[in-house]
Amino acid sequence: MPVWTIAAAQYSARNRSVAENVAHHLQFIEAAARLACNLVVFPEMSLTGPANHQPLPPSPDTELLHPLSHAATRYGMTIVAGLPVEMNGENRKGIAIFMPGAPTPLTLQQGQGTCLTPQTNQVSVLAPDAEGNELDPNASLLATGTCTHECQQQQSVQQLQRLAHKYAIAVLKSNYAGGSALWDESGQLIVRADSGDLLLTGRKYEGGWEGDIIPLRESLYVIDESCCDA
């Protein structure tokens, strides 16, 4: 049995209302739950859509995010999504962390990634300008949501791979258009996605990681079949 099952959501960027984006998140979360995932990570600014060099919108009303808090509790899953947060009177890129049993998400400024540990509620964010040696020593995974274009992919991959290798931590990347990936603690690539709406999954066993690519439609088909069989 795996000690940890994680997933990164990948899909085309969506500039839509928060309510529509929450509904879209729930599709991925339900698919991840069917795969017994303990964690699902979404791309940068996933709840409002990527900034595209425009001023960031205000942070969403907490009530709009209640379905995600409910889903985290229902499925016993940690959910990391992207949204604007207000800091010092400015809207900045941030993350919302929905944890089982928590009525509201923990919101923090987006950094280089979120440090997580299996089967605990202990989370922290590696600040944008922090060195890797400031990583939480107890963390087993650095999860990052990005919005990198094809021309930026190589630089992003090299940076995350070096981070995984140098600080012996697995790294999970969720990106919009393609290139979502998982590296193990030695910096070795476990699985990488091309384009498409999908879940990139990783399972941690005592002997190491295994990865897979699950098209979203396939995941939902499995869920629908399960409901019909019940």
Give the oligomeric state of the chains in this entry, treating copies of one chain as homo and distinct chains as hetero. single chain
Work out the count of structural domains.
1
Specify the overall morphology.
globular
Q: How widely separated are the two ends?
A: 25 Å
Radius of gyration: 16 Å
The CATH architecture can be named as 4-Layer Sandwich
Q: Mean pLDDT, as a whole number?
A: 88
> What summary fits the major beta sheet?
7 strands, mixed
Considering DSSP H and I runs of 4 or more, what fraction of the residues is helical? 25-40%
Number of strands: 13
Low-pLDDT runs = 221-230
Return the CATH topology. Answer: Nitrilase/N-carbamoyl-D-aminoacid amidohydrolase
- The percentage of residues in β strands lies in 25-35%
> Looking at this structure, what is the CATH superfamily?
Carbon-nitrogen hydrolase
Q: With helices defined by DSSP (H or I, 4 residues minimum), what is the helix count?
A: 4
The CATH top-level class label:
Alpha Beta
Strands of the widest sheet, in order across it, are 5-4-3-2-1-12-13
**Secondary structural class:** alpha+beta
Offer a concise description of the structure.
The chain is α+β, with helices and mostly antiparallel strands. 26% of the residues lie in helices and 33% in strands. It contains four helices and 13 strands.
Can you offer a commentary on this structure?
There is one protein chain. The protein has 230 residues and is an alpha+beta fold. The chain has a single domain (4-229), classed as Carbon-nitrogen hydrolase (Nitrilase/N-carbamoyl-D-aminoacid amidohydrolase, 4-Layer Sandwich). The protein is built from four helices and 13 strands. The chain has helices at residues 18-34, 66-75, 150-167, 216-229; strands at residues 4-10, 39-41, 78-87, 90-98, 106-109, 113-116, 123-126, 141-146, 170-175, 181-183, 189-192, 198-205, 208-215. A seven-stranded mixed beta sheet has the order 5-4-3-2-1-12-13.
